[in-house]
């Protein structure tokens, strides 16, 4: 899969650079993972992210250099804080008598609950569907694009962002396994969900004619979700997968590629100055992606509105334990909305009992389950108490309000996919 956004996995350092085209360029930043290169985002400078990290470095001391832990974030000591050098003589006379207080994590980044000051990280570039999901989850927020899913997690953990909005499943493509693995690796909490209808468009540079197109680029899911429609359009083009849909549109605009079209959103066409050749080209009108909202702290569960709870667990005694775990929810009339299995990276293979002399082996899995109940309800608490008896590991990822907003399916592609050439 072709990568349009330059990054280096060998350097875990985050950096800031200006986004190439945003609605409010003075406020939006792009978080990358990796060392900066000359081919990175347009209009950025090395001094931007150097100065940003210089401010943080002057306040935060790493765990190796710290001799004592002043606080822990989310119940896990990821580092420590130290006092900033302070000169009492530099204060005004009326302030010198006041007692100084230690620097806390809130001094680095106040975290508003909602509104225009909330900073929300998402994966992709401006115009991505994840940006639209962030805007739906937190209207008027400051959206912060990140070049990788894990960078969005790190942005919240490092207080660069207050929330993250990331996809976990699509009605056509299924689960986004990478984000399920990251939910287990990081200590963020699910505080909400949002469902976003996906409406794909066929984009190219203005004035490009049909016969000039030789390839179409998009995210692998975008290509798969429009496969039949692309065939019906009668285009003899190669299909190439890239990092994300909006990134495909950005690539065409930035490089003035006139033989290539992109599958992306209408907002991506507006941002990058592309022409919509065909609208609503997804094969299925009921194409919806579910996103989760992540925060450093969990929310308090309630019972006055529908809630959903997400858990992950592992067991060591074979498949019969999974039946007992699911029975704990069935006996209490708790509906499951999703169950997903992922390999247990810590113990990927388990030997069978000694009777078989260890010759047979089973794969070990972690199980992710979503169920419709709030942790404030007694039935949910009792169910998890029973589940804990049969499992070797159990973690609640979050208990949060369900997205109950109504949405209208996209128009059928057969009536809206006529090329305007």
Automatic annotation (TrEMBL):
Domain Prephenate dehydratase: 119-296
EC number(s) reported in the record: 4.2.1.91
Chain spans, region Disordered: 1-23
Predominant localisation class: plastid
Catalysed reactions listed for this entry: L-arogenate + H(+) = L-phenylalanine + CO2 + H2O
GO cellular component: a single term: chloroplast stroma
Pathway participation: Amino-acid biosynthesis; L-phenylalanine biosynthesis; L-phenylalanine from L-arogenate: step 1/1
GO molecular function, one term: prephenate dehydratase activity
Location(s) in or outside the cell: Plastid, Chloroplast stroma
Superkingdom field: Eukaryota
UniProt keyword Acetylation present: no
Descriptive protein name: Arogenate dehydratase
Protein's organism: Brassica campestris (Field mustard)
Taxonomic lineage of the native organism: Eukaryota, Viridiplantae, Streptophyta, Embryophyta, Tracheophyta
């Amino acid at each position: 899969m072709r990568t349009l956004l330059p990054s280096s996995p060998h350097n875990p350092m985050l950096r800031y650079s200006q986004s190439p085209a945003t609605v409010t360029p003075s406020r939006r930043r792009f978080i990358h993972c990796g060392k900066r290169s000359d081919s990175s985002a347009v209009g950025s400078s090395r001094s931007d992210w150097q100065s940003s990290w210089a401010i943080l470095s002057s306040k935060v001391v790493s765990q190796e250099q710290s001799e004592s832990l002043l606080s822990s974030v989310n119940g896990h000591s990821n580092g420590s804080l130290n006092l900033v050098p302070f000169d009492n003589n530099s204060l005004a006379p009326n302030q010198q008598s006041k007692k100084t207080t230690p620097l806390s994590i809130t001094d680095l980044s106040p975290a508003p609950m909602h509104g225009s000051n909330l900073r929300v990280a998402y994966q992709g570039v401006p115009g991505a569907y994840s940006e639209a999901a962030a805007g739906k989850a937190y209207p008027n927020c400051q959206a912060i694009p990140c070049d990788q899913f894990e960078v969005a997690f790190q942005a919240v953990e490092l207080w660069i962002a207050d929330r993250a909005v990331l996809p976990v499943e699509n009605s056509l493509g299924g689960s986004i396994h990478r984000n399920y693995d990251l939910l287990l690796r990081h200590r963020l909490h699910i505080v909400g969900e949002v469902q976003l209808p996906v409406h794909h468009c066929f984009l190219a540079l203005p004035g490009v004619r049909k016969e000039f197109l030789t390839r179409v680029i998009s995210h692998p899911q975008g290509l798969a979700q429009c496969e039949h429609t692309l065939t019906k359009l009668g285009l003899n083009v190669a299909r190439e997968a890239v990092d994300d849909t909006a990134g495909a549109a950005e690539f065409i605009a930035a490089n003035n590629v006139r033989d290539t079209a992109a599958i992306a959103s209408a907002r991506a066409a507006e941002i990058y100055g592309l022409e919509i050749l065909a609208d609503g080209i997804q094969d299925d009108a009921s194409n919806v992606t579910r996103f989760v909202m992540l925060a450093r702290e969990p929310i308090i569960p309630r019972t006055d509105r529908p809630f959903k709870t997400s858990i992950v667990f592992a067991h060591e005694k074979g498949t019969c334990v999974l039946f007992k775990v699911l029975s704990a929810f069935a006996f209490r009339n708790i509906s499951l909305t999703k169950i997903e299995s992922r390999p247990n990276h810590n113990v990927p293979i388990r030997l069978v009992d000694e009777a078989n002399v260890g010759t047979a082996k089973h794969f070990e899995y972690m199980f992710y389950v979503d169920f419709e109940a709030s942790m404030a309800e007694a039935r949910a608490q009792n169910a998890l108490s029973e589940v804990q008896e049969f499992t070797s590991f159990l973690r609640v990822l979050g208990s949060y309000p369900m997205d109950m907003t109504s949405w209208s399916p996209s128009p059928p592609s057969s009536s809206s996919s006529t090329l305007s050439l």
